[in-house]
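Today's session is about reading a structure prediction critically. Students often jump straight to the picture, but the first step is always the sequence itself: look for stretches that repeat, for charged clusters, for runs of hydrophobic residues. Only then move on to the predicted structure, which in these notes is written as discrete structure tokens rather than atom positions. Here is the chain we will use throughout the hour.
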Amino acid sequence: MICGGCGRANREGRHFCGGCGASLEHACPSCAFVNTGDDRFCGGCGDTLSQAAVVAAPGGVAMLAPDAVRALLAELAPVIRPAALPDGVITQDDLDRFFTGGAA
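Below is the predicted structure for this chain, in token form.
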């Protein structure tokens, strides 16, 4: 199984990458079926899995990629007060402004 974070090959049965500690399992956003990190299609519903949506962070924590965060926030915008998000890295202050509609 190939890690989506660092590209290392890992033996079957591992839950976390031996190279960077990233999770090798990812829940499908459509049905929550747990898939391995190198699956291209969900084993539960058959939907296409976006490998770009999950990236490894320091310490092996799986995080959403910036584009995935933007897509999620775009879905939430109609129900919360929208605020502009910067290009590039989205900080906690940016998220605070987004959810409060003002300064952090």
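Discussion point for the tutorial: Residues 66-76 form the longest helix (11 residues).
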